[in-house]
Amino acid sequence: MYHDVVPAGAEDSSGFPGRDAALYKITPQLFDTxxxxxxxxxxxxGLHDSCHRHGLHDARGLPRPRAPLISFDDGxxxxxxxxxxxxxxxxxxxxxxxxxxxxxxxxLSVPQLRDLRRRGHLVGSHSCSHPLRMGHCAPGRVLxxxxxxxxxxxxxxxxxxxxxxxPGGDFAPLVAEAAAMAGFTRLFTxxxxxxxxxxxxxxxxxxxTIRRWTSARTAAAxxxxxxxxCTRQAAAWTLRKIGKxxxxxxxxxxxxxxxxxxxxxxxxDQR
Length: 271
Prior knowledge:
By secondary structure, the protein is of the alpha/beta class. It has helices spanning about 20, 30-40, 45-50, 80-90, 110-120, 140-155, 175-180, 215-225, 225-245, 250-260, and strands spanning about 70, 95, 120-125, 165, 185-190, 195-200, 200-205. It has a single domain, classed as Glycoside hydrolase/deacetylase (TIM Barrel), CATH 3.20.20.370. A 4-stranded mixed sheet has the order 4-5-7-6, covered by helices on one side. Strands 1-2-3 form a 3-stranded parallel sheet. The longest helix is centred in the last third of the chain and has 21 residues, at about 225-245. The relative contact order is 0.15.
């Protein structure tokens, strides 16, 4: 799971601004190094099959584990640069879009979304307003986030999107159930697990988070399903999950304090 691919010092040029968001943004040079390392570890055929052909199911239609898919959350305008780097290596990715931000500063426009899809990339929903604690929203609100975002993307692309990714990492059964009710068939979470599972009326896919300090060696190990790398990230994720649960709404207050542009940026939780 990537976010934005931006030059060093230009972190606020794409996607959500601020120091917290910048932790998930990497430079084009580092991203290209990641791709090279992944291809060296997994093999070009493996990455090409899983990315270009989407690699999410086996011949029987069942979830296929350990097929690395390169995804990007938020819908920042740097998706165009990331797509260029993927295509130079014969790969494609999956871009999840916060639809309320479409066409605004730092985010993709509708013509750019269509261009990504035309070039063979997947495009999916990252909700309407990117609530950080979606699992704590009212059921009606969650259904609205998924239903409206899917309708916007369908209108923009001329096809019904099948994929969605969870903003903020705050998973709850109601989030998955609402995604299925909205018509999605696959939901990508932030849980670092290798094996997809069928639940709540759709297929849940875990992902491993890439941050600005993630080395090419680690990215390649995660793509290959290396036990040590995957277990290390799973342990760190569990600790953060416990902290978020104990912190409750104080978690949002802390996040706002960390964001330099707190007056400019409004998450869906602050609606």
